[in-house]
Amino acid sequence: MRKYTFIFSYLKKWKLLLLLFLVIFSSALTLLPPYIISYILDNGVVKSSTTTIVYSGLFLLFIYACSFLVNYFISQTLTKASNYFIADLKNDLFTQILKLPMEFFDKKQTGYIFERIKETDSLNVFFSPVFLKFVTSMFSFVGALILILSIRWELSLILLLFLPVIYYFTNYSSIKIKKASKVLLETTAQTSGKVQENIGGISAVKELKMESQRSLEVSRQLKNVADKSVKRGKMLNLASEGIVGITNMASVFLIVFSGLFIIRGKMSLGNYWAVSQYALMVFAPMQLLASISIMVQPGIAAMSRISELLKLKTEDEISGDSKIGKIESITFDDVTFGYSDKPVIQHFNMEAKDNIKIALMGKNGSGKTTIAKLLLGFYKNYSGSIRINGIELKTISLSDLRSRVGTVAQNVVLFTGTLLDNIRYIAPDLKESEIISALDNAGMDISEFADGLQTMICENGKNLSGGQKQKIAIARMIVKNPDVMIFDEATSNLDIATSDIVKKSIRTLFSEKICIIITHDPNIATLADTVIELK
């Protein structure tokens, strides 16, 4: 249970206490109508008392009105609490995921991660009116059993004999449903990852004519989800129908014994009516538990998985807290690293300082981009030493380090929003005139865009040319003004004019920065003071 306690940090204690009081009050109200109707039958109908019938009926209307108002207030409060609870939890989970180390993202597909965040929606079941009825029925159960006991203790004994059977059956089914739900959630997340992967790489799928192949693979994944869903549905149906069958058998015994008591004059017709209604309340918790298993168990399974994510250590928790100030030197000393058991770079050495420009050249897979990722602190499981200003990188605050390192990559990441937004992510308080100046220095004429800075940019800049995206990336770095610049294949697949703009930025805009230039192009490498060949 300890892994579920994080939920309570999102709930206000005074609201929980108020809801608990109202639930108990609502349960008490549900116990009154059967008693009042029994009174009407025995003292109004049987004795032909019009006054008793009318006044008791008015009192019954008052009880129903109070019950409506209380239950409406509870349901509305739960609806409000549910929406804000899910929003807050989803935000915290998203924030937590963003702070996780790169190893997590290397092992998980984007669609899979998205589905894990989406699992928080399953928790709204704990705020639903159906679940509330289950909680309310637990209180009504106690009161109803006491009232049946006061009428005929033999009838309460019959009900009690069936309760252990119902409890065991429900408990067994719930365990199976929870296990099946957890497996289904994981399978669904994996399938979402596979679907997203294919849609994200749609151009490659079409170019290689892989539509049929990829469709078949996703089809297998979807069938796997269906199989897991059918397995869970089997347990849900067994639980639901089993509980109904057991309670029906109990009701038969109740009718038979009640009929015998009435014939022998040991029980009135009104008493029978009250007992039959209270019997429903006794069985209600078990019946509701079976009927809401489809909602509750997936919610519990999702809660467990969310708890696991929230407990993962973030980069901040595993990084150091040393501040480095302005970066004046970078040293890689006998560094070896690999994403798996096979090293990507071995015994690598590099030293950069005093605004030096270093070019890293080599074939694909030689580790050029990996060196940039290590410098940004994405991975800590390297051997050897990486020092910034003489301080070991593993002890440095990653937030401080990354604020002093900038990157212009081959694939520029842009976000859906305006051109202005995509620059202001770096510096939120920047004036529009300063942004226009940065774009101008990056070689972009703002008049290229009909709406200027308010031009909408699609996901990853799909509505921009490669050259325009690179200019925006350079403008971002002008605004960021880092101590170290990394150019990761920044001129690949660009036309000559745009490539010249990148070269110019290295020579002029970032001339006083330490620059690490990752490239296959010998012409770009000539901009560097030192060229390191990776094999």
Structural summary, described in words:
With 535 residues, the chain is of the alpha/beta class. The protein has 18 helices and eleven strands. It has helices at 13-45, 50-98, 102-107, 110-118, 129-151, 153-200, 202-207, 211-263, 269-291, 293-310, 315-318, 368-375, 398-402, 419-424, 432-441, 466-480, 496-509, 522-525; strands at 329-337, 345-353, 357-362, 383-388, 391-392, 405-409, 417-418, 456-457, 484-488, 514-518, 530-534. The strands form three sheets. A five-stranded parallel beta sheet has the order 6-9-10-3-11. It has a four-stranded antiparallel beta sheet with strand order 2-1-4-5, covered by helices on one side. Strand 4 (383-388) and strand 5 form a beta hairpin. Helix 4 packs antiparallel against helix 6 and helix 5 (129-151) runs antiparallel to helix 6 (153-200). The longest helix has 53 residues, at 211-263. It starts with 12 loop residues before the first helix and ends with a strand.
Instruction: Give the amount of beta strand, in percent.
Output: 5-15%
Distance between the termini: 53 Å
Mean pLDDT: 80
Question: Main sheet?
Answer: 5 strands, parallel
Strand order of the largest sheet: 6-9-10-3-11
Name the overall outline.
Answer: elongated
Protein structure class: alpha/beta
Number of strands: 11
Radius of gyration: 34 Å
Catalogue the unreliable spans.
Answer: none
Q: Helical stretch count?
A: 18
The run of helices and strands is HHHHHHHHHHHEEEHEEHEEHHEHEHEHE
Helix percentage: 55-70%
